[in-house]
Each structure stands twice: as structure tokens, then as C-alpha cells.
Amino acid sequence: xxxxxxxxxxxxxxxxxxxxxxxxGASGYLAVLVLAGYMRPDITPVVLILNIAVASTGxxxxxRAGHFSFKLLKPLVFTSIPAAFVGGMIPxxxxxxxxxxxxxxxxxxxxxxxxxxxxKTRETSVLISHKTWALALGAVLGLLxxxxxVGGGIFLSPLLLFLGWADAKKTAAVSAAFIVLNSMSxxxxxxxxxxxxxxxxxxxxxATIYIGGFIGSFLGAWRLxxxxxxxxxxxxxxxxSFKLIIKIW
Length: 249
Description:
- The two termini are 26 Å apart.
- The chain has one domain (5-248).
- Helix 2 (26-35) crosses helix 11 and helix 3 packs parallel to helix 10 (199-222).
- The chain is globular and about 40 Å long.
- It has helices at 5-20, 26-35, 40-64, 70-89, 94-114, 116-121, 131-148, 153-163, 168-192, 199-222, 227-248.
- It is mainly alpha-helical.
- The protein has 11 helices and no strands.
């Protein structure tokens, strides 16, 4: 199946908007490709590879800008990496998968639409004082990420902001690293189960998505106020989530 130009444009925009806040864009890519008619088993490995590539650009730019905190990341990924592997091994029916992905997109949409004020009020990062909670949080988010086929950043970043563990820029940097590691773990599980990478699909969209991700992460780390981008992305994700949820009805 050849990717349509409108879908390619949508993937570029999603990569740019997601990466501007340190995310890899997996949930957005999954929604676009599923709605474009691709089968879930065929696209999950491709999406995870793209997620790793785009989130890596976010990690690169946000780390260079001085926002990365390994101290914050460490307890989260200690449990999330094995949990993402386990989640990737869990088979899901198409109906459950669509419901989970639609819910994931809706969570992401709400995060972008309604937590923008926190980006302005959280100016000082707060070190984790309860590592046990961080370990538990990492395990839960990693399991969800592995099951859905994403990196988990859309779950993690609003929680970091609401809990006061990081400001906006540090949240983006830590989320990017969280996504890269969990996506690698989930991808390993899928490949171990016999998933095959669709190299034709990957080669047809990889450059577009990577360029969008690189531009977005650069702008997010160095140049732009993110409020307008968040609002636009939130609206797009809300539409996609409703389409997926309606599709299973």
C-alpha cells in the first residue's frame, strides 16, 4: 500500500508538533496509519522505530539546552523498561487495541489542551522525594506504553508537571529519554514475538517524519512559546481519538 500525500503531510505535522514538547509522536502516527487503512501488526514496529528517531531529536536539543536530568529519569526507567517489554508481549484484540489507542490519544489531547498554564507557573524543577512512587509510576506507564505501542511520554509528561517534579523544559527532556528507552524495549518484545518490519513503509515516511521531528524539537527547545502548538496538537489528537473510538462501535 502506498502512503497517501495527505497522510504523509499529517505525519510531518504530527512529528513536528509532538517533538516540540519532547514527544516521539507514536500515538499520532498509529492513528494516522490505522485510519489510512494499515493493519496494526504491520505498523507497530515501524512506528516504534520512528518514535525512537523523533524522540532522540528532542533529547538532543533539550539536553544541549541544559534541561535534561538523569536523576529524575533514573527511577522512572528502572521499572518502565522491563514493564514496556512485558507490555509489548501482551496480545490485544483489535477492539481493545483501538479503545486503548483512542483513550491514549484522548489523554494526550487533554494534556495539551488543558495543562498549558502549568508551563508558565512551574518555573523551578523539584527533585523527587518519593522514589518508591517514581518506581511504581515507571512500571505502570511502561506497561501501558508497551501494550499500546508507544513510548509513554504522553502519560509521563502531564504527571511530572502536576506532581511538580519538573518544569516544562525539563519535563520535555526527561520525557524524550523515557520514550526512547521504552520504545526500544517495546520494539524488542514485538520483534521477539515475530513481528516483521515493513521496510517499504518505513522508507517511504522516515525522512518526512524525522525532518518534522528535528524542526519541531529545535523550535521547542530554543525558540518558541509552545502554547499555540499545544492547543493545535490537542485539537488534532482529540479528533483522531474520537474517530478511533467511534470506529470500534
